[in-house]
Amino acid sequence: LLDQLVQKVEFNALGEDEIALFDSAYEYLSEEDNLQASDFIFVFGAKTPLRAEKAAELYKKGLGENVVVSGGSPFYQPDEEVGADRYRRILVENGVPQGQIISENRSITMPDNVRSSLNLLDNYGINPRSMILVNSPYAQRRGWSIMKKYLPGSVSLYRVNSDVDQELSKDQWYKQEKSLRVVLNEFIKMRAGVVSNTA
């Protein structure tokens, strides 16, 4: 399906209607909330440091009491510092005290990020009442939907997007195949999450 969609996009011949459709798709994925100070700032793991940098910014503004970082190294990058371990270092370098960081560094997928982190909080006897979700814009809705599935409805969730590399920004992502695949793949992953009951 993704291959078929990519083949139909003429990167240098997009009209206003097509661009408006792409803009709407991106806005749907990247919807944010009006932020409120929360018990936790939750950071979804990824290669990019931008999510951790955004979380540090929010923490220093007093919007979260603690930061949860999640994500491990995939099997094909066992020795590379990615996910939670890298994010913990970035947070500390950006002024977040180590004692305010909870790290889950074994999960690989987004549903596993959520379940493993919530299990960890449960093991600590922590029941959050509110949480800020930091994610890349194109992955924000999927992370939010998974978190909503596994948290009680009484927990308030606030979505905030990190910065992204230029090629994944709202006005650039559909102009090259690689970034087009990344963003469109989020729709497919969301549908797969509904089918597999993880979102």
Give a written overview of the molecule.
α4 (83-93) links the parallel β2 (64-70) and β3 (101-104). The protein has helices at residues 2-8, 16-29, 50-60, 83-93, 110-123, 140-150, 177-195; strands spanning 38-43, 64-70, 101-104, 130-135, 156-161. A 5-stranded parallel sheet has the order 3-2-1-4-5, sandwiched between helices. It is an alpha/beta fold and 199 residues long. The protein is globular, with a radius of gyration of 17 Å. The protein has 7 helices and 5 strands, in the order ααβαβαβαβαβα.
Which structural class do you get from the secondary structure elements? alpha/beta
- Largest beta-sheet characterization: 5 strands, parallel
Unreliable stretches (pLDDT < 50, length at least 5) are none
Report the count of strand segments: 5
Mean pLDDT: 90
The helix tally amounts to 7
Order of helices and strands: HHEHEHEHEHEH
Biggest β-sheet: strands ordered side by side in the sheet: 3-2-1-4-5
Radius of gyration in whole Å, from Cα?
17 Å
* Helix proportion: 40-55%
Write the layout of secondary structure elements.
Blueprint: H1 2-8, H2 16-29, E1 38-43, H3 50-60, E2 64-70, H4 83-93, E3 101-104, H5 110-123, E4 130-135, H6 140-150, E5 156-161, H7 177-195
Parallel strand pairs: 1-2, 1-4, 2-3, 4-5
Helix pairs in contact: 3-4, 5-6
